[in-house]
């Protein structure tokens, strides 16, 4: 079912020619990421300020929209300080390694029917693989700073990424079972109804896993100010610190784009052009993220790991099992009548499961 | 032409990073270079049209194995002070040279068969079919999974004391 006249597929090498395609999309992706990072920073600062009943940055330009730019210029002119006993090369390289996977993720996201930098057959697997590299950057930063708080943050980052990848991948498999393809463009093309309706539980698990992977509050244990100063970027200043900041928001954009593509119908939507739809959905997902940030207190590290192993992982397995059973019964596409059943089942599972698990009786069991 | 250039770049990157892993004094940097080595091997897989294998290589080796190696190094005392080189330097050199010679000799003297078939466009489906389809390798896959589970459980049992308490580090 074509949703509007924009749905005509673009040729794979739009706008014509291998090198032109590469150049146009590379410039577009970098430009879009930087623009969206600024929009996200503005939205988050203003939005969180509203949650906390204060105005937020409103002096720089109309409604304070120039604030991110002012911050960027300010940070460029700061002095770059490297600790005396730091590992200089790694200290310099870490922000780069943390940042570039965020751009690589966007290489496979379709912005229009068939319009991605490359439409890989293994699209979503590529996304998972590439996004796992950014942990290396955090680990390098934590180690090379020669600072115990940075090191603790690096160890937390490892625990966090290695374990939260499991439920994320399991909830992605739910989507893959529904489409039978790993290519992101195929996944969007098969969504006559956005998959969030068939995979409400999978969507929630993926969103939570993404927030944990991207180190967003309430899971920002790598930079918990109350415990470990600023975490892995304690010893960073100036442009390098800004690059970490940029990497965090670029990851938020990449992750939001992936989640919109997998669960919210990607570029599909009526009337408006596909690119606008994708960006609107991305902003919506990001709004949920900063809503969570403004509302929920930071979890403790033991609660964080307990929540994963006792809560998310079993739910992700159950979700995958149910999805596989549904696809076995209705191999030619799921009937719409399943939508309310899915939502009721997801709600029931969440309520029942959250009653079953306990995180150390509310205290750390130290022996 | 492009493939040849890419191959030589990746091969040089592989060899340099592999040598740096072995010869470097800083273990942390060696582990990071190991990640680079895994990454360039993934690049070699892409040249060979094995895109699925390349993604899995990055996911497992760079994203998990290298990171766990780094974690182990972080939890080790005196990493920067203690050198990687010790009194087994000379025997190790001799043995690795012998191994390299044996490998080079066997690679050069083997008559390699080159398949006339064109490489598959989508490898994922064929790989899944081979692993899980009729007459595939489903039994070895499951046995390997059970083996890994058993070893993980064994590790937990080994560090657990008799009275149910955990050994503290």
Number of helices of chain A: 13
Largest sheet of chain A: none
CA(first)-CA(last) distance of chain B: 55 Å
The unreliable regions of chain B are none
CATH superfamily of the largest domain in chain B: NADH-ubiquinone/plastoquinone oxidoreductase chain 6, subunit NuoJ
Element-level helix/strand string of chain B: HHHHHH
Mean pLDDT of chain A: 83
Task: Looking at this protein, list some descriptive labels.
heterodimer, A: 367 residues, mainly alpha, globular, B: 169 residues, Four Helix Bundle (Hemerythrin (Met), subunit A), 2 domains, 6 helices, 71% helix
Word description of this protein:
The complex is a heterodimer of chains A (367) and B (169). Chain A has 13 helices and no strands. Chain A has 367 residues and is mostly helical. Chain A has one domain (77-362). In chain A, helix 1 (18-51) crosses helix 10, helix 5 packs antiparallel against helix 6 (148-179) and helix 6 packs parallel to helix 12. Chain B has 169 residues and is mainly α. Chain B folds into two domains: 1-108, Four Helix Bundle (Hemerythrin (Met), subunit A), CATH 1.20.120; 121-161. Chain B has six helices and no strands. The longest helix of chain B is centred in the middle third of the chain and has 24 residues, at 51-74. The termini of chain B are far apart. Classes of the chains: A mainly alpha (367), B mainly alpha (169). The A-B interface holds A 87, 89-90, 120-122, 125-126, 128-130, 132-133, 135-136, 139-140, 143, 151, 154-155, 158, 161-162, 165, 182, 367 and B 26, 28-29, 32, 35, 51-52, 55-56, 58-59, 62-64, 66-68, 70-71, 74-75, 121-124, 165-166, 168.
Helices and strands, with pairings:
The complex is a heterodimer of chains A (367) and B (169).
Chain A (H helix, E strand, L loop, with lengths): L17 H34 L15 H10 L11 H18 L17 H9 L2 H11 L3 H32 L4 H6 L10 H14 L11 H4 L9 H26 L10 H22 L5 H29 L8 H19 L11
Helix pairs in contact in A: 1-10, 1-11, 3-4, 3-5, 3-10, 5-6, 6-8, 6-12, 8-10, 10-11
Chain B lengths: L1 H22 L3 H21 L3 H24 L14 H21 L13 H10 L5 H22 L10
Helix pairs in contact in B: 1-2, 2-3
């Amino acid at each position: 079912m074509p949703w509007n006249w924009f749905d005509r597929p673009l040729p794979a090498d739009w706008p014509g020619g291998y090198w032109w395609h590469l150049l146009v999309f590379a410039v577009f992706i970098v430009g879009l990421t930087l623009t969206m990072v600024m929009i996200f920073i503005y939205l988050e600062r203003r939005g969180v300020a509203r949650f906390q009943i204060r105005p937020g940055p409103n002096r720089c330009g109309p409604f304070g929209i120039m604030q991110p730019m002012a911050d960027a210029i300010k940070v460029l002119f700061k002095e770059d300080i490297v600790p005396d006993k730091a590992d200089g090369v790694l200290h310099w390289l870490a922000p780069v390694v943390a940042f570039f996977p965020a751009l690589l993720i966007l290489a496979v996201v379709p912005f229009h029917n068939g319009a991605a930098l490359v439409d890989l057959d293994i699209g979503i697997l590529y996304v998972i693989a590439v996004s796992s590299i950014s942990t290396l950057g955090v680990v390098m930063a934590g180690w090379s700073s020669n600072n115990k708080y940075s090191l603790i943050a690096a160890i937390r980052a490892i625990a966090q990424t290695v374990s939260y990848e499991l439920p994320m991948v399991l909830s992605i498999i739910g989507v893959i079972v529904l489409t039978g393809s790993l290519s992101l463009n195929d996944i969007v093309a098969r969504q006559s109804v956005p998959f969030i309706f068939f995979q409400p539980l999978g969507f929630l698990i993926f969103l939570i896993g993404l927030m944990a992977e991207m180190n967003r509050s309430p899971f920002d244990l790598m930079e918990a100010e109350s415990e470990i100063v600023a975490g892995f970027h304690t010893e960073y200043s100036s442009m390098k610190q800004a690059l970490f900041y940029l990497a965090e928001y670029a990851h938020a954009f990449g992750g939001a784009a992936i989640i919109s593509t997998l669960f919210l119908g990607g570029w599909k939507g009526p009337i408006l052009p596909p690119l606008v739809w994708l960006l609107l959905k991305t902003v919506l997902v990001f709004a949920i993220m900063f809503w969570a940030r403004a509302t929920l207190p930071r979890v403790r590290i033991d609660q964080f790991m307990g929540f994963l192993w006792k809560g998310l992982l079993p739910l992700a397995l159950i979700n995958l099992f149910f999805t596989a059973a549904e696809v076995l019964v209705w191999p030619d596409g799921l009937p719409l009548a399943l939508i309310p059943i899915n939502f009721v089942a997801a709600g029931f599972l969440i309520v029942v499961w959250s009653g079953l698990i306990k995180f150390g009786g509310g205290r750390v069991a130290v022996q | 032409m492009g493939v040849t250039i890419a191959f030589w770049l990746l091969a040089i990157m592989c060899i340099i990073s592999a040598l740096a892993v072995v010869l470097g004094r800083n273990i942390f940097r060696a582990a990071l270079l190991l990640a680079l080595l895994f990454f360039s091997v993934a690049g070699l897989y892409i040249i060979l049209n094995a895109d699925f294998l390349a993604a899995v290589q990055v996911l497992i080796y760079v994203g998990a194995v290298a990171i766990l190696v780094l974690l182990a190094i972080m939890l080790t005392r005196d990493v920067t002070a203690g050198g990687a080189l010790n009194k087994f330097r000379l025997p190790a050199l001799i043995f690795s040279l012998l191994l390299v010679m044996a490998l080079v000799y066997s690679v050069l003297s083997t008559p390699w068969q080159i398949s006339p078939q064109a490489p598959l466009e989508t490898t994922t489906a064929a790989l899944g079919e081979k692993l899980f389809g009729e007459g595939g390798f489903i039994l070895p896959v499951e046995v390997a999974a059970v083996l890994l589970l058993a070893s993980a459980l064994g590790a937990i049992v080994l560090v657990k004391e008799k009275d149910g308490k955990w050994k503290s580090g």
